[in-house]
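Re: duplicated header lines in exported structure tokens

Our pipeline writes sequence and tokens for each protein into one text file. With two proteins the header for the second block appears twice in some exports. Here is an export where it did not happen, for reference. First protein block:
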Amino acid sequence: MAIAVIMPKQGQSVETCIITKWFKNKGERVSVGDILFSYETDKAAFDLESPVDGILLDLFFGEGSEVPVLVNVAVIGKSGETTDSFNPHSATQSAQSAIPVSSTGKVPATHETPRLKNVTNVTDSRIRISPRAKRLAEDKALDYNNLQGSGPNGRIIAGDIEKALSGILPGTKTVQTTGAEYTEQPLSNVRKIIAKAMHASLQNSAQLTHHMSADVRNLLEARQKIKTKLSTDKTQQDITLNDMICWCVIKALEKFPEANSHFLDDRIKTFHKVHLGLAVDTPRGLMVPAVKNASDMDLVKLSGELKSIADACKKGSISPELIQSTAATFTVSNLGNYGVEMFTPVINLPQAGILGVCTIINRPVDLGNHTFAFVPYIGLSLTYDHRAIDGGPATLFLKEIKGQIEAFRY
């Protein structure tokens, strides 16, 4: 029996999703768990896995299509089964608006450059336009009545409006000069979201950063114990240095709850529990998922949860609710593995702060009795919103994180 593959509904506010890449072709055999396609919402990117074993009988939307949620995208079944009853397109759809399939079974991109309509051939005066595209056009005062959309049934989608605004002529694609001097490609949906969020954060808050270093001899000793035990004990949790630092941050937040807050213009919301955000670098861009109720967890549980949300982000299976900026109460961003000695992390508003974790550097320290030694120190960069926290309390909070790291025992 044929089974429909539908576009998932990712969050209550999501109306449409954009298919960014198909990984399987029409007619190809698929198994449960195989990635069928990647798609983006206006907040994040995800992968959709096959729910059943079978043949990918038909694909109804191509790469670049903006698809309403809960609409059939494809059909999986047995060879020879019909798929007409699953097709979301109108039965009267013309051959020109139908989605063509190449001889290889691959659905080509339908996200073409918007074209001017031939007014004499228009028989339906109703303008088909997605809500997101309509909002964008109205915000930019763009007349979309003479645009032909590249979405299903000629529907105008957000990408059509963006291309019209940029003045791209019909037929233009990714630009590359004959001398290979440069290339151009449109921003992905995720990159647009990141850019907008970072710009808004810096534009709409009073951010500044304090830097401090912490002695990490105890953390390195604990890490070595864990690595040694991993080789002999299969039940040992692989707790990383970042896990330990996040644990220390949570302990510090419990002592300085003003840092565990959201600044909401006319009020400050201070949370009783820590919902820790972790900046995760993925192939699609930066994501910041939250570990809810992290302050209720022991170190082993916290380590497992941090690994789980990071893996989910990289696989594209993270819940949209966990990557909302309001899901976390404080965020940790670790660039230590890249050798960064100091940086200024940007706050994920409305959170009041974010901690940047830097690389470990050996520094000379006076041990007393005219004895000097090189001691490993880790850089800590705290960016905070001065509207929510004053400099004094912010410094004491950062000092508490340093103290928790230096007093760490495993």
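Second protein block, exported in the same file:
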Amino acid sequence: MLTALKRIFRSSWLSFRRNSGSSLATVFVVVMTIFAITFLFLFRGTTQFLISTLQEKVDISVYFKTEAPEEEILKAKTEISEIPEVRDVEYISRQQALERFVQRHKEDPLLMESLKEVGENPFLASLNIKAWQASQYEQVANFLENSSFKDIVKKIDYYQRKPVIERLFSITSIMNKAGIVISAILVTISFLVVFNTIRLAIYNSREEIKIQRLVGASNWFIRGPFLIQGIITGFFATTITILLFMLLCWVFSPKLETILTDFNIFSFFLSNFWILLLIQLLAGIGIGTVSSLIAMRRYLKV
């Protein structure tokens, strides 16, 4: 049994080397597919970080009438905090709003002069609300419009911020769908290329197959080298891709960190190395094995 396996592996390797041109082309196409799948994984991690960062900055505020008692506003804060979609609620008093405005615009003499002209504090008390997901702000806004404290509410700025929130949600969906479609297309192309490579290998080995049949070789002894050839293709493609991505992440990590502060793509790659390697092995060897089995079933009649 062990001797037969050694012969199958040796025959597979010799066939892989003999058809080096088509083998390398096949490895290249499978590399492109695994590259796209790996890129999608890293891109998803990057976009999730970016989206979570943006979501930290996206919020809605509910402003209360000037005459609204503070205790009523604090009751409203407690009520809003109990909504499952709400992650955090911050109360900003009129005085705090004024202080923040002054701190932010103290270098702008025109605005400071305008504020003095007004005389009194023009700002309203508000509750700054953050939801868990960008898609949940509409539910929060609907709750605020029909709440028990709606009579003391001056305005809700959700509808002014709605285009930004919806845009964020839309970009996320489009990015994920585009990545899945591109990966699916490349997987299909890889299947076809590996399939045709194995078909060509079967055609080139037709005389050897006839001789093996005549000397009584088993079906799997004949089929084995073509199956192993598909696995070898997937293994080489996986090895090349993981090394290529390691190099790219290491090179581009400092540059990306200047754009995405607090996110290091190389650290993310290393922390997910084993998951990525497993995904790549499943993709590469899976494509090679399945394509080989289909090609053998169709063209190798033993």
